[in-house]
Amino acid sequence: MAKFDHLTLPVADWVRARDFYAGLLHLTVELEAAAQGTVALQDSRGFTIFFQETATATPPDGVALYFNVADVEAAHGELLRAGAEVSHGPRKVRWGYGLEVRDPDGYVLRLWDERSMQEHGH
After folding, report:
1. Which of 31, 32, 49, 120 has the maximal Cβ count within 10 Å?
2. For 17-59, what is each residue's pLDDT tens digit?
3. Both 89 and 119 in a single domain?
4. Which residues contact 50 (CB under 8 A, 6 or more apart)?
5. What angle (nearest 5°) sits at the alpha carbon of residue 87, between those of residues 90 and 66?
6. Can you give the three-state secondary structure of 108-121, one letter per residue?
7. Beta bridge partners of residue 112, listed in sequence order
8. What's the mean pLDDT when you consider all of the chain?
9. Is the pLDDT of residue 60 over 80?
10. Inter-residue contact 98 to 120 (CB < 8 Å)
11. In which domain, by residue range, is 42 found?
């Protein structure tokens, strides 16, 4: 079976993407290639997202990135304090229970935790 382990997303500013994902979602910087306008960030399981700076960075409609966090309520508070664009706080939605936020490039991120998901019937 294949293992999905890298994804590249176009962004307007790779440093801004790095700061958002490393600072707020606590992803680890795997590598930076400033000359290529690229940063690679890794989650706690080894999945890597490359953020590649490009002049035509527009998130496609219908794409959402889902992140399992330790505590969705705590993540919500941290995102609000940081001034992130929170679309809605933790609540029951069609995909489960969690919050939705947009990153600085407009990508939709959905954050959830296992405890809250179970408590709300998912």
Report:
1. 49
2. 999 999 999 999 999 999 999 999 999 999 999 999 998 877 7
3. yes
4. 6, 7, 8, 9, 38, 39, 40
5. 65
6. EEEEECHHHHHHCC
7. 68
8. 93
9. no
10. no
11. 1-57
Q: Once rounded to an integer, what is the mean pLDDT over residues 81-100?
A: 94
For residue 66, what are its two tokens?
A: 């889902």
Q: Give residue 18's pLDDT.
A: 97
Is 105 in the same domain as 115? yes
Residue 44: closest CA among 19, 31, 25, 60 = 25
The CATH number given to whatever domain includes residue 45 is 3.10.180.10
- Annotate 40-70 with b (16+ C-beta within 10 A) or e (fewer): bbbeeeeebbbbbbeeebebeeeeebebebe
| Amino acid type, 57 | A
Token pair 């002049």 in the structure block, residue? 55
